[in-house]
Amino acid sequence: MIIDADILFKIAGVGLVVAFLYTVLDQAGKKEYAQWLAFFGFIYVLFIVLQALDTFFSAVRSVLMFYE
User: Is the pTM of this model over 0.85?
Assistant: First the structure.
C-alpha cells in the first residue's frame, strides 16, 4: 500500500507553519507560547499519523480475512 501524498503534504505543511511560528514567537520573547505551539503541532501530526495507521491496519485486516 502506497502512502497517500496528501498525508505527507499535510504533515509537511504543519511542520513548516509550526517552525515559522515557533521562530517568530521565540524571537519575540514568547518562548513558553512557542513551546506550547510546538507541543500542539506534534499532537496534531500524531493524530494524522494514527488515522493513517488505522487505515493501513484496516486494509491489512481485510486482506487477511479474505484468505481465511
Answer: no
CA distance 3 to 47: 16
Helix (H) or strand (E) holding 62: helix 31-66
d(CA 65, CA 67): 5
- Judged by phi (left if over 0) then psi (alpha if -120 to 50, else beta), residue 53 lies in alpha
Parent domain of 29 = 5-66
- Number of compact structural domains in the chain: 1
Can you tell me the distance from the alpha carbon of 1 to that of 20, in angstroms, rounded to the nearest whole number?
Answer: 33
Q: How confident is residue 29, by pLDDT bands cut at 50, 70 and 90? A: very high
